[in-house]
Write a structure and sequence with these properties.
- By secondary structure, the chain is an all-alpha fold.
- 76% of the residues lie in helices and 0% in strands.
- Helix 4 packs parallel to helix 6 and helix 4 crosses helix 8.
């Protein structure tokens, strides 16, 4: 059995566990930068290793890695494509507030409470997207500017709250809201979702840091791996375009449905 690392801020995990978590963070960063869903990989890996002995340590440490990775993805998107900051920032601000509230409830919520609702929602999202092959290929705005910003902000609050609770698929729900409801193309939606994801991760950390739940050593190592994956994923998304992002989106939705369905079946 591999001895635990006696390093501060690592939660007494083994070297083998650290390498496993680094690989998970690398892959999660790439997937999350394209279309969201990196939490499907990174958070379960942390919960499996259980650094610090409590699920909240895994949740809080995951946010450190995620906020750095999503920030790197935003920077890459901003350099290679256009981000509509006038609509993205109000949505991100609303999502930040929602995430703070969600994080405050995270410790009191039983892990399986949201699984059923989220599972049904993801099935609906996947079927809707699959049945509309032209969805998100091009920009098709559906609302006047003021109504669009208001709708994005309301959606940001709700999805931000969900992200604070550590629900998987936050980025996927953000992309679907922006594509299926607002009318963005997939590439535009993915870039905007990353801006909002930075805010939700920061909002959750605003609660977790004072609560002393962040394992900083582990979080910063995973952040480095997450950034590497995020930059690669964002560049790939920009290079391949909305049709590629749509395919990845559907793949992640299916993976999330299988993952949550499996958890529900196991009780």
């Amino acid at each position: 059995m591999t001895a635990a690392l006696d390093w501060p801020g690592f939660g007494q995990i083994s070297l083998a566990a650290l390498l496993f978590l680094c690989l998970a963070a690398l892959v999660a960063g790439a997937v999350d930068a394209v279309v969201g869903g990196g939490g499907l990989i990174q958070l379960p890996a942390l919960l499996l290793i259980a650094p610090g002995g409590q699920p909240l340590y895994a949740l809080a440490t995951n946010k450190v890695a995620s906020v750095v990775g999503t920030s790197a993805a935003v920077r890459t998107y901003a350099r290679q494509t256009t981000i509509d900051w006038w609509s993205a920032l109000p949505m991100a601000s609303a999502a930040f507030v929602g995430a703070v509230g969600g994080a405050a409830f995270a410790g009191a919520l039983a892990p399986g409470v949201l699984n059923g609702v989220v599972l049904v929602a993801l099935v609906g999202v996947g079927l809707y997207t699959w049945r509309k092959p032209d969805l998100g290929v091009a920009e098709t705005p559906r609302f006047a500017r003021a109504a669009q910003i208001t709708l994005m902000a309301l959606g940001g609050v709700l999805i931000g709250f969900y992200d604070g609770l550590a629900g998987p698929g936050t980025g996927t729900f953000l992309v679907f809201l922006l594509v299926g409801v607002v009318g963005f193309a997939f590439l535009h939606a993915s870039a905007t979702a990353k801006v909002v994801n930075v805010a939700t991760n920061l909002g959750a950390l605003l609660y977790f840091i004072p609560a002393g739940k962040v394992l900083w050593g582990l979080g910063l190592v995973l952040a480095l791996c997450n950034v590497t994956g995020a930059v690669f994923g964002a560049r790939l998304a920009v290079r391949r375009g909305s049709a590629f992002v749509r395919r990845v989106f559907l793949t992640i939705v299916v993976a999330l449905v299988v993952s949550l369905g499996w958890k529900a079946a196991l009780g």
